[in-house]
Amino acid sequence: MYTRFLVALVPLFAAMTSSLAGEPASDAAAAPPAGYRLVWADEFDTDGLPDPSRWSYDTMSNRSGWANEERQYYAAARHENSRVENGVLIIEARRERTRAFKDTGGQHYTSARLVTSGHMSWTYGFFEIRAKLPCGRGTWPAIWMLPEDWSRGKWPLPGEIDIMEAVNLGVPCATCPGGRGNPPSR
């Protein structure tokens, strides 16, 4: 049995970009390995909100709370939190009240959680992602592959493949699942 995975950008206080500022993409990095062909790409070449034919927003647990106890409200199609500017996807976390949102869980931060769910999924493949990530205490940017079929239960039971996850707690976190005992960053 094979599981098909969706790509999810899970930006816990993250700014994801399609290329590193000031660094031209190399032709070698753009070419897939021998035997592979390009089946999906987003170069973020249209300013505005992310392309809704490629990306959806995951907001399902805003009111009840997220499995990792994330402390932000994930906004859908909100320019302040997710947008494309000059060929770069920006996911911006903001400290602000969320009372005005109908599905708020009382969070004090907003951000965005983008997924390919409902648009595209893969069983096999080669993935190339260029991203500029934040560092510093309190950030936890991640790029995950999550299953398309959730019949095995809620996360984490169906599985997850981390393409990239950078825990920048800076201090030990007794209340963070998977983050307990992380030493302070130096």
Question: Could you characterize the architecture of this molecule?
Answer:
- The protein has 186 residues and is mainly beta.
- The chain has one domain: Sandwich (Jelly Rolls).
- The chain contains one helix and ten strands.
Condensed summary:
This protein has 186 residues and is mainly beta. 2% of the residues lie in helices and 22% in strands. It has one domain: Jelly Rolls.
Task: Please outline the helices and strands.
Layout: E1 5-12, H1 27-30, E2 56-57, E3 72-74, E4 82-85, E5 88-91, E6 94-95, E7 109-111, E8 114-115, E9 140-147, E10 161-165
User: CA-to-CA gap between the ends?
Assistant: 43 Å
Largest sheet: 5 strands, antiparallel
Strand order of the largest sheet: 2-8-1-9-10
- Proportion of strand residues: 15-25%
Do you know the CATH topology? Answer: Jelly Rolls
Number of DSSP strand runs: 10
Principal-axis shape? globular
Q: Into which percent range does the helicity of residues fall? A: under 10%
Protein structure class: mainly beta
Number of helices: 1
CATH class: Mainly Beta
Rg (CA only): 17 Å
What is the mean pLDDT? 79
The CATH architecture can be given as: Sandwich
Kindly give the count of domains. Answer: 1
- The sequence of SSEs as H and E is EHEEEEEEEEE
The poorly predicted ranges are 10-24, 180-186
